[in-house]
Design brief:
Residues 24-274 form the EAL domain. This protein has 281 residues and is of the alpha/beta class. Helices cover 46% and strands 20% of the residues. The longest helix has 33 residues, at 2-34. Bound molecules: ligand C2E and magnesium ion (3 copies). Residues 59, 114, 146, 176 line the site of one magnesium ion.
């Protein structure tokens, strides 16, 4: 009896693994077609400057509108796109589309675009950025590129050289998800970042946990001393906003203001948060 049960459990896991492997293969096949079929879109989340109380820019966040499965989160498909060598073309599409869209915005509004560490492997990243800027007419100073600490894990010297070339174009470089993963303060010495994005996990419990306050305070202080802008991610409550303002954080981003929205809603978002006061109204 026990033996039979064991076999049953074994078969169950086998079926489950087959199922997962098949889903994965399906996603790979679908992903390879998605770019040509125009299934990707960019949504834009406002970044709000605490001092001027207005939108300083938008972060472009990639969305996959699957024909049968609906919207699929980038957290699910980007790792797969990286595995199957699709992140190069996909990342290039994001850069071109984002710059083209941002070129329509008021001239003080910037765009932030996420880069995968694997985009640093294809040696033409700088060329793609140059070309996306030239084709869109977007001034380089309005483009921010977001990278994570994983860019420093392999090919460190080569990647730092690429970062310097990007910065020489006049674009700025942000360190995303700061404080998570392989976080090390030494990365701040490896490259002169323009912005640090404080990870959502520290913002989440600001009102409840003194250790989160201490960490946010330390990162803001570091930013001030090193002349690096600090942006807090995942701000959902006015309590969190009040803490961040008190700790001297420069910018905030989160559902309190807006989730990422399609390009067609940018104008409306600018009207609503152009002056922050109108948030309450
Ligand atoms: P990220 O760059 O750290 O982006 C922030 C994520 O937090 C976004 O998730 C955003 O929708 C979510 N978020 C923003 N405000 C809040 C909030 O108040 N509460 C909560 N709970 N979440 C909030 P999303 O759009 O699912 O993207 C996930 C990750 O996928 C991004 O993290 C980024 O690492 C990656 N990603 C997105 N678009 C691209 C892209 O075009 N290229 C690359 N390479 N990666 C991308
Ligand atoms: Mg980001
Ligand atoms: Mg982030
Ligand atoms: Mg994050």
């Amino acid at each position: 009896r026990a033996k039979q049960d064991g076999r049953g459990v074994h078969r169950f896991f086998e079926r489950e693994m087959d199922h997962q492997a098949q889903q994965r293969r399906e996603m790979e096949t679908d992903l390879r077609r998605a770019l040509a079929h125009g299934e990707f879109e960019l949504h834009y989340q406002p970044v709000v400057d605490i001092a001027s109380e207005s939108i300083s820019g938008f972060e472009a966040l990639l969305r996959w509108r699957h024909p049968d499965k609906g919207m699929i989160s980038p957290a699910e498909f980007i790792p797969v796109a990286e595995d199957i060598g699709l992140i190069g073309p996909l990342g290039e599409w994001v850069l071109r589309e984002g710059c083209k869209e941002a070129a329509n915005w008021p001239s003080e509004v910037r765009i932030a675009i996420n880069l995968s560490p694997l985009q640093f492997r294809s040696r033409n990243l700088v060329q793609v950025v140059v070309s996306a800027l030239a084709n869109s007419g977007l001034p380089p100073k309005r483009l921010e590129l977001e990278i994570t600490e994983s860019v420093f894990l392999a090919e460190t010297e080569a990647n730092i050289a690429i970062l310097h070339q990007l910065r020489e174009l006049g674009v700025s470089i942000s360190l995303d998800d700061f404080g998570t993963g392989y976080s090390s303060l030494s990365y701040l010495r490896s490259f002169p970042f323009d912005k640090i994005k404080i990870d959502r996990s520290f913002v989440k419990d600001l009102a409840k946990r003194s250790d989160c306050v201490a960490i946010v305070r330390a990162i803001s202080g570091l930013g001030r001393s090193l002349n690096i802008t600090t942006t807090a991610e995942g701000v959902e409550t006015t309590d969190q906003l009040d803490w961040l303002r008190a700790e001297g954080c420069n910018e905030v981003q989160g559902f309190l203001f807006s989730a990422a929205r399609p390009a067609a809603e940018i104008e409306q978002l600018l009207l609503r948060f152009g002056a922050w006061e109108s948030r309450a109204a």
